[in-house]
Amino acid sequence: MSVIDNPAQVAPVDNVDIWDRDDMEPRVKEILDRTVRDRPTGPYSAKTDAEIIAMLQRYYTAQGLTGIEISQVQRMAGGASKEQFAYTLRHTDEAAGERLVLRMDPLEAISQTCRGREAQLHDALGTVMPVAPVRGLDPDGEVLGQPAIILGFVNGVTEPTDMKGRGVSGMGSSYGEWADKLAPQFIDALATLHDFDRTGCDLSYFAEPEPGTRQAAIWQVNWWSKLWWDGIVQPVPIVTYAERWLRENAPVCENTVICHCDLRIGNFMFEEPSGKFTAVLDWELAHIGDFHEDLAWACQRLFGMYDDKGEFLVCGLMPRAEFLRRYEVASGNTVDPDRLRYYEVLNAYKCAVMDLGQAIRAATESNNHQDLVLTWLASAGAVFLAQIVQLIQEA
Amino acid sequence: MLPNIDVRIANLIKAMEQVVVPALPESERLARDQAMLVVGHLRMISGQWKSALRFEQVALDALTDLAEKLAGIVAAPFAGQLAEAAQTARKADRGSIDGLEQAYNALGGVIDNVILGGPDHASFPQAAVDVLFDYGSRQARVERTWFKAIGFDPDRADLPEIADVL
Fold it and tell me: How far apart are CA A158 and CA A282, in angstroms?
């Protein structure tokens, strides 16, 4: 048994109350409380093109635009979480038109997050990495009727066209010869993000966990355990024990960084045939925390696969040891195996909460635009239960 | 039963694959995605439905075994609560999926409280953790097998058939 598995051996290191469930970012708590409040207002139906046009007309009118024309509305594929539409906006001062993406919250999704936080990160990080420009925001849905962000349309693909239909979707995928083009940029994006100086950035939707304490970890445990208990459909003893273990073994985070927290290769958009990244997508889970959390997320088994030699490839790109070594070189950060293991448990816990908790709750209430996707993803929940057991036993 | 459920599910899959999906324009991505998911769910259900009652029985039995083992390890008052809840679970209507689920949820709630140590966060002994992990490993394997047809599990090649775990 490691020290980290036996908290009795560890002297108190800070004043963080590991069982104070209310100790979390205020905006996160607001979103989670809103979820419970609005849950009974369902069911939710997928929006029609006509509804989207009416919503956008209302939004741009409120923005003071005139001569508004919304055209070429096209629902975007994927999205277990957000409902997304591409469209072209023309108005009196922009006759040529701009292609845009409306990314909005259904009533409930597999995760419950904040569009305002996404917008602030897009604005802050646009100078150091490719992200879509923010063209509009309604963080609480006051005008559109549901929370949304509007982004500039970015060209690119998230899976190589020549590999379509071979199961490549960022989950359980191998990128084959594309790995040589994508892997260096993937490592660079992680290093760049974790080195980003956020001084002076407007990150008012975020709160900063206190460095040198366990608060970064405990805030995450409180976020996801609240989501679990607020929507629990059926008790899962391993999920409950994981929460306890995560509280009792929370590590100190000395230096906090911006963590994307869903930084797997499927969330990068790139050009063909160069493979050059054009956008880093899906910042909804991002927060300020421990860089190990991003590394642990990328290492998840569900996002990778085994190669012909039986070696597991992180995100279908490279072996785990190589991934961590290249990250250390690029970032200058030293990976602590104990912290990495802790965040692997945390991430497996998060996924179990999403799959076996929130996804099933949202589908049960019929509160998503594609409930069928949620129950499909929920079927993978036991994979994470097995990982939680294995990871804690190995810690 | 004529027509039986297997035939009807097979009919549904055929209609979706041969009529509905081809009729959907490529531009209707959501409709096409959803239609293919319907097919996927139907294929999975076709391999599960005959065992659904047995699955719930096995799940409740495993949870009840866990509660009884934990009752022999944890301190009062948790031990008594677990023993009583397990006894109630043993009396569940084993011919009803709804009844089994209700019994599972009631017993699971008691176990959750013990794991968290109640409002004072009482300790959860290592022996109890060992018992819990033994249960967790076996039950996760049952559930991974139950859903292996979805294709997400990176180790699905190592999983047995549903009949082998129920």
Answer: 12
The answer to whether the CB of A125 falls within 8 A of the CB of A136 is no
Q: What is the ipTM of this complex?
A: 0.96
Please give the Cα distance from A291 to A285 (Å, whole number). 14
A214: Cβ contacts below 8 Å, ≥ 6 apart: A13, A14, A16, A18, A250, A251, A252, A253
Contact B30 A75 (CB under 8 A): yes
Interface test with A, best of B43, B74, B111, B152 (most A CBs within 10 A): B152
**Would an 8 Å CB–CB cutoff place A306 in contact with chain B?**
yes
Helices (H), chain A: 26-38, 49-62, 115-125, 179-194, 215-231, 237-248, 291-298, 320-331, 337-353, 359-365, 371-378, 381-394
Kindly indicate the confidence band of residue A117, based on its pLDDT and cuts at 50, 70 and 90: very high
CB pairs under 8 A between A and B: 115
**pTM for the predicted model, two decimal places:** 0.95
**CA distances for B41 relative to A356, A379, B3, angstroms:** 17, 10, 20
pLDDT at position B41 is 96
pLDDT in tens, B62-107: 999 999 999 999 999 999 999 999 999 999 999 999 999 999 999 9
In the block, which residue shows the tokens 């009807």?
Answer: B8
